[in-house]
Design goal:
The protein has 6 helices and 3 strands; from the N terminus they run ααβααββαα. By secondary structure, the protein is mostly helical.
Length: 153
């Protein structure tokens, strides 16, 4: 098999994996009024408060969409928004205690599914997979950063 055929297969496998992860997240949020976009926003601010501007850059979305999503999460009680004391133009967002709880429950479901999926794979295979995935991610980030992926449609 040629290298380009392997690359096409790898791409198809990544798309299939993405579809399965999307389904897993859909199942994890079943019965919870939470979109995957809202879930992503919660994940971005999980570890530390972030300004709307930082969240816009991190998510790659436009600022209006980020602000709107954050307002919806705030209305549900899952996110807190505060103006910066240093600069009132800057709005900082962080998870509320309620948001931390719901996110923890969703992640626990996802981790349980992942553990079941990986249970039949040997430790050395998982390590090799992690190494390979890390290299692919780093390489793709570099390609996108340089703008080398441009193709005229």
């Amino acid at each position: 098999m040629r290298q380009d055929e392997y690359l096409q297969m790898a791409y198809r496998q990544m798309m299939r994996l993405k579809a399965l992860v999307d389904q897993l997240l859909k199942d994890a949020t079943e019965g919870v009024d939470l979109t995957r976009l809202q879930l992503m926003m919660m994940k971005y601010v999980q570890s530390a408060p972030m300004s709307i501007g930082e969240l816009t850059k991190t998510s790659g979305m436009d600022q209006g969409n980020v602000s709107s999503t954050c307002k919806k999460l705030e209305n549900k009680g899952w996110l807190e928004r505060k103006r910066s004391e240093k600069d009132e133009r800057v709005v900082m967002v962080s998870l509320s205690e309620k948001g931390k709880t719901i996110l923890s429950q969703i992640e626990q479901y996802a981790y349980t599914c992942a553990n079941q999926a990986f249970s039949s794979i040997q430790e050395d295979e998982i390590k090799m997979l992690l190494t390979s995935m890390g290299r692919v991610i780093k390489s793709l980030e570099e390609v996108l950063k340089k703008g080398e992926a441009y193709v005229q449609l």
